[in-house]
Structure formats: C-alpha cells, structure tokens
Amino acid sequence: SSLVMLGLLVSSAFGEEVKEEKVKKAEELPEIVVTATRVETPVEFAPASVNVVTKERIEFKAPKTIDEALNDIPGVFVKRGKGLMDTLSFITLRGIPQQKRTLILMDGVVLNNPYTGNVKMGGYYPEDLERVEVVKGPFSSLYGGYAMGGVVQFITKMPEKREFTFKTGYGSSWKRGEAMDDLRRVYVSYGDKLWNKLSIFLSYGRQDTNGYPTDFNVRTTKPPAGITGYKETYTREGRRAYLIGDRGDNRWWDDGITIKAQYEFTKDTKLRLSFMRNRYEYNYDDPHTYLRNATTGAPVWSYGPVRENTFLAGPGGWVQNTYALGFETKLFKDLSIKINLSSINTEKDWYVITLHGATRSGCGPNPTTCGYVSNTPADAYMADIQFSLPIFSNQILTFGGSFRREYAHTKEKYLRNWKDEDSTTTLKYESKGKARTYALFVQDEIMLLNNLTAYIGFRKDFWKTYDGYVIDLHENGTPKAGYPKEYPSKSASSFSPKVSLVYKPFETTTLRGSIGKAFRPPTVYELYRTWTTRTGITYAGNPQLDPETVVSWDIGIEQKLWKGAKVSLTYFENYMKDLIYRKTVNATYQELVNVGKAESRGVEFEFEQRFDKWLRLFMNFTYTDSEIKENKANPKTEGKRLTHTPLWIANVGLEFKRSKFQGYIIGRYVDKWYIKDDNSDKKTYVYGSYDEYFVVDGRISYQLTKFSKLSFEVDNIFNKKYYQYFKAPGRQWFVELSLKF
After folding, report:
1. What is the share, in percent, of the chain residues with pLDDT greater than 70?
2. Contact of 35 with 133, CB cutoff 8 Å
3. Which one, of 452, 565, 449, lies nearest residue 508 by Cα?
4. Dist CA 83 CA 67 (whole Å)
5. Peptide bond into 315 cis (omega under 30)
6. Which of 248, 226, 389 lies closest to 312, judged by CA?
7. What DSSP character marks residue 725?
8. Nearest CA among 338, 453, 320, 315 for reference residue 386
9. Cα–Cα distance for residue pair 373/415, rounded to 1 Å
10. 570: Cα within 13 Å, side-chain hemisphere
C-alpha cells in the first residue's frame, strides 16, 4: 500500500529506524500527499500548505456531496447556497475568485469544464473517495492552467479485499418549505481483489428531494391599487422592490455510477481502467403568486410590465461520462513512469429559459415567444506522462509532458412547450470553439541538508484556440447583422516557474516558503459566447483574449505543541494580472477584455487539540484582504474588493468517538461577499444578496452491530436565515442506516 511504501521511503532516508517504523500502527504513520509534488511525499515535507481529508474523516463527516468534505478547511471557500440544488456551487482557494481559477482533479483527470472552467459537483458520491488532497498556492508549474489558487484532487478508492457497502437515508426540513423536503438517499458499492492481482470496484448512488422555494419573484415595479399580498423589500443594491411570489419548490435528483479495475502485473507495474457516469436534473413544481385582487381575492399573475412568465423557472440538467486509463511501472530499478489518458464527454448541459409568452399551462402558438433550451455538449481529451528519477544521493527529478484538447458547442432552440426541453423547433443561436494545450514540465527536489529541502520547477504551456464560430438569428430564422462570424485562430504560451523551501529546525517544527507564477487561458465561453437580449444589448465574447496570470508567495510555520496539540500559521500574497472583465463599449454593446490587475493578501490559522483518540477540538480561520488595483473597463471598481471573496472564513468544532457512539458539532462562519465588481450589492438578507452567516451542524451515530450503523444529523441547528443569491436552507434533519461488510 501507499503507506507501506512511504514508510520504506522514510526509513531509507533516516537509516536504521526502519524496524521501529514497521511496528507502528497505520494511523501513526506519516500522512502522505501526492498532488503537491506528483510523487508520494510526507505532508510535513510538502512544498506547500496542504490539507488531506482521509477516508476515515470522510466516513466520519458523511457529507452528501464531494465538495462538502472540504467545508471546514482553512483557506478553502466552499459555496453551496441552496443545498443539493445549487448548480453554481464552487471551491476556491486563498482569495483567487471563481471556480475557473482553481484546478479540480479526480484521479488525475481535470474536471474543470472546457466550456466555462467551472465544475459540476452533482452526481459524484463521497463514499467513492479514498481521500481528498488540497494544495494551496500557484501550481501551474506542475499542472498548467486553472491552478491559480491551487489544486484540489479527489482520489477514489481501490479495495484491497472484498467489501460491500449499502447506505440509505431520509430527511426533511424541520418546518416544511424551509429546507430540502423529502430528501432520499441510497448508495451501494462492491469491491474485491481477485487472485491477488485484479482489483475491482463498482458503485451506484442516487439522491433526490422535493426541495423548497429558493427562487423568488421580486420586481421593482409596485403593484397598482386594487392588488394586495405583496411585501416591500429591497434589491441587493438597496433599491425599493416588491416580493410578489416564488417560482415553486426547487426539486432535484442526481445519480452516479462508477466502474473501476486495476491489474497488478508486479509490485511496481499496474494498469488501471475507470468509467464514471454522472447525471443531475433540477426542476420546479407549481409557482406561487402572493398577489390577490383586493375585491374578489382571486390570485393575480400579471400587472403592468410584469407578465406571468416572471413566475416561471425552467428545468435544467447535465450528463457526463468520464473514461480514464492509467499505467505505471518502474524501469532500471529507479526510473518510475506514470501514463494517464482520459476523456470527459459532456453529453448534455442544458437549461430552459422562459420568454414573455410562457404561461403556467405551457405556451401559445408561437414558439419564439414561449421559451428556449440552451444545450452545450463538450469534450475534453487529456494525456499526461510523468517520469521520476532519483539522481545523485540527494535529489529526485520529476519531469514529463501533457496534452489537452477541448471542444464545446452551444445551441439554443425555441420550444413549443417550455415544460418539455425536447419540444424543440427552430435554431435561435449557435456558438462553438476548440482549444488545445501542449506542455513540458520539470521539478527537482533537492535535499540540501537532512532538515532542509528545496523544490525548483517550471512548466511551459503552448495554448491555441481555433475553429471559433457564432451565429445569432432573428425570430424568422434569418441571421442578424454581422452574423455568422468565423474567428481566426490565436496562440499564446506561458512560462510558470516555482521555488519552494521546507525547513525542519526541530522534530516538532516545520517552516516553509514558496514563490511561483500560474496562469489560466480563456475558456470557450469567454472567447466565443455572444448573445443579444430582447432589449437589444449585445454581450460579446472576445476571441483575442490573452491568458490571466498570478504571481504568489507565502511563508508559514507548523508547530506541534504539547501532547495532541498543533498549530499552523501561513501568510500569503497574490498579484493578479490581465484579469478578464466585461467592458461597456456603448449603451448596447459589452465585451470581455483583458484589463484587470488585482491583489490579495491574507492569513490562514489552524489549531487542533486531541485528547487520546476519543476527542478532537479544532478551530481555524482565513482572513483575505483583496483589492482591484486596475480596471480600465470600469475604473470605479478600483479599490473595491474582489468578487466571490469573503473577508473572513472561520470554523470551530468538536468531534468525539466513545464506545459505540461517535459524532460532531461544527460551526462555520462566512463573511459577506460581493458578486458585482463595484461592490454595489451591499444590501443584506434580501433575495439576490450574498450574506454573512454562521451555521452550526451536528451529527451523532451509533454502531448497532459490527456491520451496521445508525446516524442522525441536523444541519443549520439554529435555523439561520440568509441568502446566497437564492434562499439558503433552514434547519433540516436526516436519518441514515449504513451496512458495511
């Protein structure tokens, strides 16, 4: 196993201590990380601030989504504003905003979507995971694009023996309509190792909920005299507004299937194959109007400029297949080789938008006034080869190359019935484009002294976008002026160096510092996605966009204190350049341009106290001060905080394991953050705002038998009411039975 291999590595480095190391219990062995260096490295020697969420921690926390496994780690911002139904969930690191600037891997496969750079978390199940590695700081020197804030890698498990897992659970809101009602969850997996050579793993999971009202109908036009039932409120910018209804309970289901196999030819030679299929779909039940005719009491669905379609929210969904092949071997005793090939096929990534002719019953005879469905199938093909070779007596050289090809194709088609995404008619809009990247990388790990290690590395990426195409059509099917457009290809390259030092002056103390550069190429969405609203405003992509870059440095200390106690403190700074913003050219035209410069600096602090093996207390916080330094597209934003970046994030918790009981209680605080780059969305606790919140979650479980466990959990115990654009879930309970053989 990887832990045994690590024990051998450490013992060979430090001499005759191997005999003592072999008799240690598994939980006492050094924790390892792969993502930070691409080879197995003890966390205490990793050249970055690293957090590892182990399989035991994942089973203990029992998150329902893979991103929730990270929501109590310092320096990590996990946004999931309305529970499972949040299609815009994201993970960001160290104040580098938006998902597209944090690289997400699963078993080495890049999950960042080739269309937008975002990651769809629906359909992935935490029960499949062996561990999660979070590596903070710029990592383009090893991984190329997207790794501006760092890398999160989800590593799935491969069984060493026969195992069977079955889990089922049910939960609902404490008060119906305030959180995810009727949440049902089931998961089953089987793993085995045959003939001491072939390992297999199969799993299937599904969860669904009847949801709750998350999406409200808020209008700035006041209902006229004779209409009652509305409530006065505000927009997130502080303008007077009126709450007139909601778009119905936001329902959701997702499922996922995983098939994996690994064959060990020898101890050092392995072949792995895997397939994952992940799906989700959201929709809404009947909408609700709060408006009533003052005379008759009849419901009112429209007035003045407000139409019935403003109460209607269309469905959406996503289907993705992931194929991966991995091969590793060792030549000449010391040269290790890893080859990874993968393909991600997004069959469907769709959503429905209603237009002014949509009604609760469907549509009128004209599809161009009813609604349309937008669907963006996309593909990404990746290849990565890595070599690792000890040289001299104190160095490990890691080098290799990678290739990635991306393609995305958006089509919008009018619908005969907005409730049926398959009732398509004529084409409304189409855009598509491709991108490819070749790269070479090298890293030298040098043990300067027994307690001082340097990491020096760089990567050169060669990026090209091509075959860009856009067409926008009138309702009669004829192209609008200036369309179709075919764009010429564009190329760019990026050099991403990084230097790190790790120093252990004492056995209980680790000091580390690093400086590096990272980049992100523009996505197909940013390059080619262009559309015109019904009011005549055109939002244009820009095929001439250049990659964004960041230069970051950090310095930190980890200190073991008295028995069971440790503390860590890290200071970091980020200098971002060529950030992509939307520039207003005139009253009817906006386009994306490279104009921005921004800086952020902050502190990560973490403290942990363990009492034997039955009690753990912890607390951590992250402070991130960010500022837009230059934005020629919108100068009034200069001096404002970066979007998607809370000033404070903090976690405090207690975990216990005693006899057959175990459980936790965790409080999570997130400061207010902004979605508008001029920070004008200052109003709090209104629909559309991104509020500060402190929520407390708790869980307790009891081991019924050797093979079965019963658990009960409550999320948002104190029923904190807040918005993350949509209304966030209130207090909710969940009961689960687990069987594991």
Report:
1. 95
2. yes
3. 565
4. 11
5. no
6. 248
7. S
8. 338
9. 7
10. 28
Give the Cα separation of 70 and 47 in Å (integer).
21
Q: Please say whether the beta carbons of 244 and 291 come within 8 A.
A: yes
Place of tokens 């009533």: 292
Chain-centroid distance of CA 457 in Å reads: 27
Closest CA to 517 of 546, 547, 553: 553
Residue 304 backbone class (left: φ over 0; alpha: ψ -120 to 50; beta: rest): left
The gap between the terminal CA atoms of the chain, to the nearest Å, is 21
CA torsion 54-57-58-64 (nearest 10°) is: -150
Residue 81: which of 552, 670, 525 has the closest Cα? 670
Amino acid found at 454:
A
DSSP per residue, 358-399: -BTTB--S-GGGTEEEEE--EEEEEEEEEEEEEETTTEEEEE
Record the tokens describing residue 19, joined without a space.
């005999």
- Summarize pLDDT for 431-448 with one digit per residue, the tens: 999 999 999 999 999 999
Closest CA to 214 of 76, 398, 84: 84
Q: In one letter, which amino acid is 419?
A: K
Neighbours of 335 (CB within 10 A): 13
- Give the torsion through C-alpha atoms of 31, 35, 41, 43, to 10 deg: -40
What digits encode the pLDDT tens for the residues 208-247?
Answer: 999 999 999 999 999 999 999 999 999 999 999 999 999 9
Q: What is the pTM of this model?
A: 0.92
Contact partners, residue 339, CB within 8 Å, separation at least 6: 326, 327, 328, 383, 384, 385, 386
Q: Residue 45 — φ and ψ, nearest 5°?
A: -105, 5
Identity at 221, one-letter amino acid code: T
Q: Are 693 and 659 in contact (CB under 8 A)?
A: no
Task: Classify residue 117 by its DSSP letter.
Answer: S
Phi, psi of 312 (to 5 degrees): -110, 130
Which residue shows structure tokens 């590793």?
A: 328
